[in-house]
Amino acid sequence: MSECYNIEISDGKLVFGKRELGVPGCVIQGKLPEARDGLDAVCRMGDPDLLQCLVYRRENAPGGIFALRDKYGLLFTAVAESALVYSMALGHFGEMTANARYGVDVYENLEEPDD
Q1: Which pTM value belongs to this model?
Q2: At 105, phi and psi to the nearest 5?
């Protein structure tokens, strides 16, 4: 079973708080949202074999859902209730997935000599 969080802003920063499973927006037992759930799949950020974030936007309401997964399955979902939180979370999860890929690339290339 995956975890589910609310994303809010406090002092200009994103804050993640626990969200009850079964509340709209939570993904239960690894089932990802579908179009019929009132969400549009926007993009995938990251590497499917390492760490990726699936981004969903609400069709007729502000906010959206971020589903973070690795190659083994869903880790957690995070729900943004407003457009401001949603846009800040896009940057947060984009940076997180990019840094994960960068870290692996650096580690994998440690044996190659620097020029």
Answers
A1: 0.81
A2: -60, -40
